[in-house]
Amino acid sequence: MKRFVKKWRYPLFRTLMLTAWALLAGFPIFWITSTSFKPDNEWHKWPPVYVSKNATLDNYRMVWPIHQTGSIFVTPDQKGHGVAHESVTANKPWHALKNSLLIALSSTAIAVAFGTLLAYGVSRYRILSDTRMFQLLVLRMIPPIVVAAPLTLYYSVLQLMDTASGLIVVYFITSLPYAVWMTKSFIDEVPREMEQAAEILGASRWQTIWEIIFPLIRSGVVATFLFILILTWSEYLLSFILSKVDVVTLPVQLSKYEGSTEGRVYGHQAALAVGITFPLIIIGIFIRKHLVRGFTFGMVKR
Amino acid sequence: MTASATETAAGTGAAPARGSRSRGIRIFKWTLLTPLFSLFFFLMPVFLLQLYFSLHSWTIYLSSWWDADYAGFDLFREVLTESRFYWAFARSFLFAGLSTVGCFIIGFGLALLMYRPFRGHSVFYVLFILPMLTVPIVISYTADMLLFRSGPINDIMSFLAGTEIRFTWLANPNFAIFTIIMLEIWNWTPFAFIIMLAGLSSLPAEPVEAARILGASRLRIFWEIQIPLLRPVIFLALILRFLEAMAEFPKTWGLLQGGPGTSTETIPVYLYIVTWRAFNVSKGAAASYLVMLLMIVIILSAIYVLRREKKALDALYEKPAGGGEA
């Protein structure tokens, strides 16, 4: 009996602690998912409704309407017939989704492409000294708010305010340090013998990059791409400041359901939030082994 | 930027035919550097504009910003004599400091429980990284749903305590900042957790084993062997988290917008309010400039430490089979 207690005491304690934190970590995500299915009379109820018995897709229908012109938009009812609503709070989630996809995907792709090339140059030709590599981190570490005001004016002079290309450029800049550092950590792991062999066989430098290095670090580049995509997709401040109407991204769109005259529209917010968050959770779980490397600029590996 | 880079030519492979080859390498290097240079030139005017605005008095109500009145250092003086500015600093440091420590303690604790493999390890790992993958602004609105007076958190606490609790998490000016700190801790504990877990699992087994054979207690092994070996990882987690927390905007803004009163007004929120709510662009620019200078000092000292610790880290990951750096 004593041995039994001694053997199981630690695992039991461990499971208990871990479960407690897992519940705490999962609860807000559970809550937002459950709220997104609640009818409007259950949003503010006391005692709160944990899992709605009258679960409905109405919130999703409102937030992701099938058709919209101006402030009038059409949502399908239970039978699938279109019903017209008028709302000022519901702007354009589909439009925001399109913007978010366009901006996040293209800025990430550009950052990873240039980042990989730079990282290759640093790893093999030392085009940037150690000091410069660390100085590159300043681009990421400086709080973006300190340059936000001059950036706004600069953008309005360049006519980049409220354009997708404007946001793509700033996201390229803020994610470049991550791209360079993370891909460099992958390139450093590739032995040089292959490149030397390729060079002897007469391959050009670009050929070496494209045909020798790239295939070897492909999974690392994909991980870098997805990691930066997570950060860019969820970025709020710069998008909030540099966009007005045309290129509102999903995180900014979410804030349009707050503080309106209709009070807090929890259900709609939740339905939109679920749409924003779940793709990221899936991507994040997919690259979970590389998250450490990403967040630590490739300094900690698993 | 990199004048020295061109001089340190071909150090990589043996090069019998100099001339055209080293020239080729030089062109190749500069081609790779082009995006960085264009970026530098693209960003330059932003900092010049910031300097311009902090020295000239301009608000959005005046028409053309290019012929605003020269104000000298008046704007800096105005910012520096404002107690609100210092309070914002104090709050930012409180926010960043406490949340960093909180994330670290919880994350390290979880990592210590999990660095030895057991059944269900990967399930817990996936569950634990969820908060980090949630969009910050979503967290702030979710927190609003969870923490308002008739929200589920108060309900669960009432259930656990046995009496009805209706705690004001958000509208209480003395407590609101701690609510935000807790949110930040919830959001970024996974960050400390994954770093510490990776650090713990990459520790060499021999020193711990040797100490155990020599009869050291578990606590002593922890303090005198594991902690010193983990130092670079610990520094990395603390520094990166602290810097990110100093810049935190979506959660503080989305949830409370600096309120109630100014009780959750951290530096980023303060700068936002001055510039975009009061439209005091010049004052905002002057304040931004001061914040930027201070942040650069903090970041450069952080980078100094990071460089030192990275050397230790690279030594830790050094594989006996060679490869990587020659």
Description:
The complex is a heterodimer of chains A (about 300) and B (about 325). Helices cover about 65% and strands about 5% of the residues of chain A. Chain A contains 13 helices and 3 strands. Chain A has a 3-stranded antiparallel sheet with strand order 1-2-3, with no helix packed on it. In chain A, β1 and β2 form a beta hairpin. In chain A, α3 runs parallel beside α7, α7 packs across α9 and α8 packs across α9 (about 205-235). The radius of gyration of chain A is 24 Å and the shape is globular. In chain A, about 45% of the residues are buried. With about 325 residues, chain B is mostly helical. Chain B contains 13 helices and 2 strands. Chain B has helices spanning about 5, 20-55, 75-80, 85-115, 120-135, 135-145, 150-160, 175-200, 205-215, 220-245, 250-255, 265-275, 280-315; strands at about 55, 70. Chain B has a two-stranded antiparallel ribbon with strand order 1-2. In chain B, α8 runs antiparallel to α11. Chain B is flat. At the A-B interface, α1, α3, α4, α6 and α7 of A face α2, α4, α5, α6 and α8 of B.
